[in-house]
Amino acid sequence: MKRKFGLLIVLFIIVLVIGGIIKLLSTRAPKEGELRVDSTPTVSVFLDNKHIGRTPIREKIASGEYTIRLVAESTTESIAPWQSKITVGPNLLTYINAALSESELSSAVDVLWLEKSVAGKPELSVITNPDGASVILDEITKGLTPITVSDLVVGDHTLTVSSPGFVTRTMKVKMTQGYKLIASLKLALSQGGVPTPEASPTASPATTGGTPTPTLKPGTTATSSATPAKPYAVIKDTPTGFLRVRMEPSTSATEAGRVNPGEKYHIFDEKSTWFQISYDGTNKGWISGQYADKVE
């Protein structure tokens, strides 16, 4: 009887030891996150100099910090490679969307990932290369990069980032309760390095929305049917189908209203490449001279 009891004790101890080992191994096992990479053109993806495949890529990898490198496979055109540090969080997604060109300056790369929010509320951090870019969230100017926007509403938002001389980025971002979304954007130099403050090119599917609907803000009405006194500005065609009127002569200034191609407005003042007009017959604002012809 004592012998059987002793065997039971030994078996019980063995079970406890095995359970402890399994628990220890499970806690030591690296937690995984998800890495997604989309690109134009198709590129080879290297993590810490290890080739993991060709875009588009969707892989589960151990969480941690990596050096990622994108290298084009095309033999008919010269495409500049791109390399950066990225972070992959446990059970979280890191997304990269790259539009590579023959020059690093004209390549655009978006890197987005999630981190736990210290405040426990949805937050958005925007980092750009170069910094000092204007950040507009849901058509409201938030400031210049680098910037963190707190106390956001859970759900989809429209993020626009622009800087003179660089191609504007517009994308849909989704805010999640308890997390901070970090958007690190490498802006592409516009063609010829000419400022394009009103251009709104669309980034790739899965991360972006379309161009904003060309409507005026409540309380503003752009009308200009008669030929105004000289000097006046004639609004040219724009990529968006309209031209924003700013409160100040700067792309980072608040939007006051919108005017349409072909309309004419008297020029009250000029600053650098900006014209001051009365966009609704009462209030004044500034438009970019890049998208307006001056008639004297």
Report on the structure:
- The chain has 296 residues and is mainly β.
- The protein has two domains: 32-193, no CATH class; 232-295, SH3 type barrels (Roll).
- The protein is 9% helix and 45% strand.
- The protein contains one helix and 23 strands.
- It has one helix at residues 2-28; strands at 32-40, 43-47, 50-54, 57-62, 64-72, 82-88, 93-99, 108-116, 123-129, 134-137, 140-144, 147-149, 155-162, 169-175, 179-186, 232-235, 243-246, 255-259, 264-266, 269-271, 274-278, 284-288, 292-295.
- A seven-stranded mixed sheet has the order 4-1-7-8-15-9-12, with no helix packed on it. The chain has a four-stranded antiparallel sheet with strand order 3-2-5-6, with no helix packed on it.
- The chain is elongated, with a radius of gyration of 27 Å.
- The termini are far apart.
- The model is unreliable at 192-225 (pLDDT under 50).
How large a portion of the residues is in β-strands, by DSSP E?
A: 35-45%
Oligomer: single chain
- The computed structural class is mainly beta
Largest beta sheet, briefly? 7 strands, mixed
Form type: elongated
As laid out across the biggest beta sheet, the strand order is: 4-1-7-8-15-9-12
Which range best describes the helical content: under 10%, 10-25%, 25-40%, 40-55%, 55-70% or over 70%? under 10%
Unreliably modeled segments: 192-225
Q: Give the helix tally.
A: 1
Instruction: Give the overall pLDDT as a whole number.
Output: 79
What is the gyration radius calculated from CA atoms?
27 Å
Domain count, please report it. 2
Q: What pattern of helices and strands is seen along the backbone? A: HEEEEEEEEEEEEEEEEEEEEEEE
Query: Gap between N and C termini, in Å?
Result: 113 Å
Number of β-strand runs: 23
